[in-house]
Write a structure and sequence with these properties.
With 200 residues, the chain is α+β, with helices and mostly antiparallel strands. A four-stranded mixed beta sheet has the order 2-4-3-5, with no helix packed on it. A four-stranded antiparallel beta sheet has the order 8-9-7-10, covered by helices on one side. The protein is elongated and about 105 Å long.
């Protein structure tokens, strides 16, 4: 094209027009690409806003402080409900938590787990185990839990004059299925009577 201008094959104005057209053609894909990138970033930003960091989404609401209630320790797979606290964001409870039953229904909000099957977080669960106080009972319980590759956070125990033992165990699990496997194995230990989750 520059040669054509030199030899007066096209005018300077025609050359300018052609250059402008080529620049526009080059810019169009770039603009489209930038638009796609911006749209993707917007989607990612909105997705991040909905994530609470504890694996729970508040339905229809972004940027809320969310925490798991310590009274019932919900874990992925539990039916859950949110409670809007005064100044502390949303507290997530198990749906069957007695502490939530007497609260103002207007302050309850729908919440849901983020991809239960993809959870890689650990959640604290309190178990109360009752049984006959015999030698080795506690060791057998701890061994069974260790065999499931489950972390034990705390353990306490006591027994009465009738040789009834109560063992309180705090463990870290990933979801309800993980918990059920542990509870089922503990229940099969000789002289264990009951295994249940506790609510404070």
């Amino acid at each position: 094209m520059y040669a054509a201008v030199g030899y007066q094959g096209i005018t300077a104005q025609q050359a300018t027009n052609r250059l402008t057209e080529k620049l526009i053609e080059k810019e169009k894909p770039v603009d489209l690409e930038n638009s796609l990138i911006e749209a993707q970033q917007e989607v990612e930003t909105k997705t991040k806003k909905k994530s609470t960091g504890i694996g729970v989404n508040v339905k229809g609401v972004d940027n809320l402080m969310v925490r798991l209630s310590k009274c019932c320790n919900p874990v992925p797979g539990d039916e859950i409900i949110g409670f809007i606290t005064k100044g502390r964001g949303v507290s997530v409870h198990r749906d069957d938590c007695p502490n939530i039953k007497n609260e103002d229904e207007a302050r309850l909000i729908d919440v849901e787990w983020e991809g239960v099957n993809r959870q890689r977080k650990n959640y604290s669960v309190d178990l109360e185990i009752s049984g006959f106080d015999r030698n080795g009972l506690l060791n057998e319980i701890l061994q069974v839990v260790n065999e499931t590759n489950t972390d034990i956070v705390a353990v306490t125990g006591k027994s009465d004059k009738n040789k009834m033992a109560v063992i309180n165990l705090t463990i870290l699990i990933q979801n309800v299925d993980h918990l059920r496997r542990i509870v089922d194995r503990i229940k099969h230990i000789s002289d264990v009577f009951t295994v249940q989750r506790t609510i404070q």
